[in-house]
Amino acid sequence: MAISDMIRRLLGAGSEDRASEQAGSQTDTIRVAKRTGLFSQARSDVRSVFDRDPAARSTLEVLLCYAGLHAIWGHRISNWLWRHNLKLMARWFAQLMRSLTGIEIHPGARIGPEFFIDHGMGVVIGETAEIGTRVTLYHGVTLGGTSLSKGKRHPTLEDNVVVGAGAKVLGAITVGENSRIGANAVVVKSVPPNSVVVGVPGQVVVRSQARVATAPDLDHGRLPDAIGEALVSLITRVEQLENKIDGERPAAPAIHAPDHGLWHGEDFSI
Question: Angle at which helices 67-83 and 3-52 pack, to 10 degrees?
């Protein structure tokens, strides 16, 4: 063998070794980055609890006692299994987390960062549901489907949406960002951004001014009674018109507008 051939082979072997070392180094870097990303995400999840629940007092308490946090972490595992075509194992693990937390999240659901489930018991999130950033759900919420189609059949919640206790959001609809769904509302149609939804079926009230999402919208006491206020306005207008008609009085007592928010019992035979 010529000396030049030996030199070329040695140089080639050296370059292959260097390429192998570089590939190994890149793999290690990717692993470290993934590990760092997981810890960063976990810290963000814990921070979300403190941001939205004044009852949270310590990190240890949050780690041990918040079923919503456990359900989210469990979903990340089941979703990984689902995306890697381990469907049965993903469903089994999701059922295990349901038994432990009382929260049912299908492994196929897509959930964004800083998601928070408060209390959590009875929450159901369907397979094709999509949840944006900094979304908050309370106990008894259902993100359900209304179709036998295999395609998109569950709702999409955009960023900074808050869904009150017992609310049902049904079908392949979209709830726009910075919106709030009132407790026990039933939402069956899409909601524009910066809206409040109340009632059954849900009445959508678009905010007069867009909300700046500096903090979660947890002011559940501010829920407009759209139908009730419309009836009060109508009754008040009818009374004004009757008073303008000289000598005309209703043959039977009419329902009167409420006085400072209080209805009259005699109008309802109470």
Answer: 150
239 inside domain: yes
The candidate with the shortest Cα–Cα distance to 108, out of 43, 153, 141, is 153
174's enclosing H/E stretch is: strand 174-175
pLDDT tens, position by position, 1-23: 565 565 555 445 555 555 555 55
User: Alpha-carbon torsion 19, 23, 28, 34, what sign?
Assistant: positive
Q: Secondary structure of the chain: what % helix, strand, coil (to 5)?
A: 40, 15, 45
212 burial level (CB within 10 Å; 0-12, 13-18, 19+): exposed
Contact between 145 and 153 under an 8 Å Cβ cutoff? The reply is: yes
Long-range pairs for 147-153: beta carbons < 8 A, 24 or more residues apart: 147/171, 147/172, 152/128, 153/126, 153/127, 153/128
Q: How many residues does the chain have?
A: 270
User: Residue 92 belongs to a domain with what CATH number?
Assistant: 2.160.10.10
Domain span at residue 193? 67-206
Query: Maximum CA pair distance of the chain?
Result: 127
pLDDT tens sequence across 138-163: 999 999 998 888 889 999 999 999 99
Model pTM above 0.90:
no
The Cα 47–Cα 52 span in angstroms is: 9
Residue 14 lies in a domain: no
Percent of the chain at pLDDT exceeding 90: 46
> Six-digit token pair at 99?
């038994």
Cα–Cα nearest to 115, from 79, 152, 151:
79
First vs last Cα of the chain: how many Å apart?
112
